[in-house]
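Work Package 4 report. The design task specified in the project plan requires that, given a folded chain encoded as structure tokens, an amino acid be chosen for each position. We show below one input record used in the internal validation round.
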């Protein structure tokens, strides 16, 4: 007879599975870098199913093998997590962002450091997140799921903000006749359109795939990974909507400044200069402790 017909579902096995799930719940609650492959909502559902199986264990052993398959599948997932994290070994992985094969965190290449200056440090931020999700070529499904949800929300909000900037540029172009101001406004308009198009494409790509699947996530990261640059190319792609929106706003401010200094009164120019200086000063103070790709 084939599994699971030749295996009895005892109360000891169910108790062991219940303790596994309870330990996983406690670990996910007390640690933000848990190695558990399930989130708290999934663990709660697993615990509920285990409780129902305990109440029906006698009938399962007599007539139905389905409960045995449920228990075996749950235990298999926990066993695989222990295997990939070297559970019980001297160098076991205790945190999801802990590397077993290297002692130092990966340093980002000079290429992404230079490019991050032009893209407002966004590529380095995404590269750090990807490095924490895909440690030692092992994907953390929970962190990946949270990362994708955050990405989709960010891209949707960026596309919405880009439409506001786009409308502002259209109104600006209808009112201003200064050539230099119109030129920068045209550039701002095109970058806003780029944000909307790129954001929609990236969200669509994520929605077409099962982002809860660790296997598909691992395939994506493996395909986009480079022997030298790692996941930096993917980080740059993910950062483009934010960077384009920032450049769109920068060009719009420049266009507005050209209009102010080209036709406004001295009082208006002074007020604009003071407001702009305060904004730059606040941004500099906010970024004193933030350095790209550290």
């Amino acid at each position: 007879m084939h599994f699971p017909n030749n295996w009895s579902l005892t109360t000891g096995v169910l108790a062991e599975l219940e303790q596994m799930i309870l330990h996983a719940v406690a670990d996910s609650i007390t640690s933000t870098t848990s190695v558990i492959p399930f989130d708290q909502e999934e663990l709660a559902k697993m615990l509920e199913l285990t409780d129902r199986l305990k109440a029906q264990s006698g009938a399962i052993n007599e007539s139905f093998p389905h409960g045995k398959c449920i228990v075996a599948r749950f235990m298999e997932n926990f066993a695989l997590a222990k295997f990939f994290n070297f559970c019980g070994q001297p160098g076991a992985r205790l945190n999801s962002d802990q590397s077993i094969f290297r002692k130092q965190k990966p340093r980002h290449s000079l290429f992404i450091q230079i490019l991050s200056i032009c893209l407002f440090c966004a590529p380095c931020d995404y590269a750090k997140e990807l490095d924490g999700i895909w440690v030692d070529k092992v994907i953390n499904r929970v962190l990946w799921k949270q990362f994708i949800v955050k990405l989709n929300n960010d891209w949707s909000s960026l596309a919405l903000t880009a439409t506001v900037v786009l409308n502002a540029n259209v109104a600006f172009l209808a009112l201003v006749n200064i050539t230099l101001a119109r030129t920068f406004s045209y550039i701002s308009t095109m970058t806003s359109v780029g944000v909307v198009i790129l954001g929609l494409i990236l969200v669509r790509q994520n929605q077409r795939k099962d982002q809860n699947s660790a296997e598909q996530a691992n395939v994506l990261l493996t395909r986009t990974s480079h022997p030298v640059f790692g996941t930096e190319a993917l980080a740059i792609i993910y950062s483009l909507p934010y960077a384009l929106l920032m450049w769109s706003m920068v060009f719009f401010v420049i266009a507005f400044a050209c209009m102010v200094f080209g036709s406004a009164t001295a009082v208006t120019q002074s007020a604009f200069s003071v407001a702009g200086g305060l904004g730059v000063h606040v941004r500099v103070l906010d970024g004193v402790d933030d350095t790209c790709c550290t």
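The mean pLDDT is 83. Validation will be extended to a larger panel in the next phase.
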